[in-house]
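Incident log, structure service

09:12 report received: a user says their structure output differs between two submissions of the same chain.
09:20 pulled the input from the user's history:
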Amino acid sequence: MNIRYITCSDPRNHNTHDEMFDLWKIDPRVEIAVQMHPGKVSPDTERYKWIRQLVDKASQSSENAPRLAVHVNNDWCDEICNGKIPGPLAFVFTTRNIDDFFPVVERIQLNMPQKTADNFNPEKLKRVIDHFGDISFIIQYNNRTKDATDKLYKTGAQFGLLFDASGGRGESPESWQKPVYGPEYLQGYAGGLKPETVGTELDKIVKVARNRDIWVDIEGGVQKPTGELKPDGKPIKLFHAPFAAEYIRNTLAWEQKHR
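09:34 re-ran on a clean worker, output below:
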């Protein structure tokens, strides 16, 4: 099993850009993934400005190009899945690195809401994927999106799949999903990963992935409680760069052990 990306998801504007660059320096496969959706990440928010500044700073990097992904949610995801690029996301698709002119945002993950999974236009989404041929698209694959993913696959579109049975709720599955489609469809694993247990979960993943190229994606496992509570009484947690660094290093240690 070959690990292509080590993804750290959902840093926000409480983090510094330097923290992200320090994570990128640990290994060239480290990928920073930011969440974008209308409302909380609309253009008038500090979070949107922080993401835009991160993309701009990454585009100026004269070292190895940082790996950056955007996970698109809600109505913006629906628009893309039906053939339209939302105006506030145009920079995600068009910003290029000054040295090699490759896209700064290397991968775009579409987290389909139920209404989109049920009603999107696979041919229109294929046209978007084909048009932006040097950007990789990812579809979150679970019981809610399986039929939608199969429809897109039948169009001949090229994309990756993220296996997350919990649908972003951060829950580990009893057993990890076996790969679907052919090896040209890169496939990743998320759900309940933690820095201290990523090695154990990789032991399980390799049993189903075998010799496939994969990636791992962590979000809740690298969040730290702020001490504040949500209206429902649950603790507010935010991305903590030292936890992310531990996850990256433990993933690398597992890989080194299994070479």
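09:41 both user submissions now match this output. Likely a transient worker issue. Closing.
09:42 reviewer note: The mean pLDDT is 93. The beta strands are 2-9, 30-36, 67-72, 105-110, 136-141, 160-163, 187-190, 213-218, 223-229, 235-239.
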